[in-house]
Amino acid sequence: MSVTVSIKVRRELVSLADKMVKLGIAKSRSHAFNLMIEKSLASILEEVRLWEEAVREAEEMLRKGYSIRHGGLSRILGEDRGS
C-alpha cells in the first residue's frame, strides 16, 4: 500500500530522478525516489538498529546506577541525532 508524503529534497536529487526517468531506469519521479530510498534502506535500517541498541544499553546502565566519568550520558540519550 502506497502513502503520499510531501517532502523537500535537494535540487540534485530531483535532477537525478529526472535523469532516471529519461534513461528508463524509473517510470516516474515518484518511482525514481522510491528506488533511491529502497537502495539505501538496508544501511539506514542498520544505523537505526545500532542507535536503538546503544540507547537501550545506556538506559540500562542508568537504571543500574552507572555513570560516565566525564558526564554526558543523559545528553547523548536526549540528543537530537538529525543533522
In short:
With 83 residues, the chain is mainly alpha-helical.
Number of strands: 0
The rounded Rg comes to 19 Å
Low-confidence stretches: none
**Major β-sheet, in short?**
none
The chain-level structural class is: mainly alpha
Please report the number of helical segments: 3
The termini sit apart by: 30 Å
Strand content: under 5%
Query: How many distinct folded domains?
Result: 1
Tell me what you see in this structure:
The chain is elongated, with a radius of gyration of 19 Å. The chain has helices at residues 11-22, 29-63, 73-78. It has one domain (11-78). It contains 3 helices and no strands. By secondary structure, the protein is mainly alpha-helical. The mean pLDDT is 86.
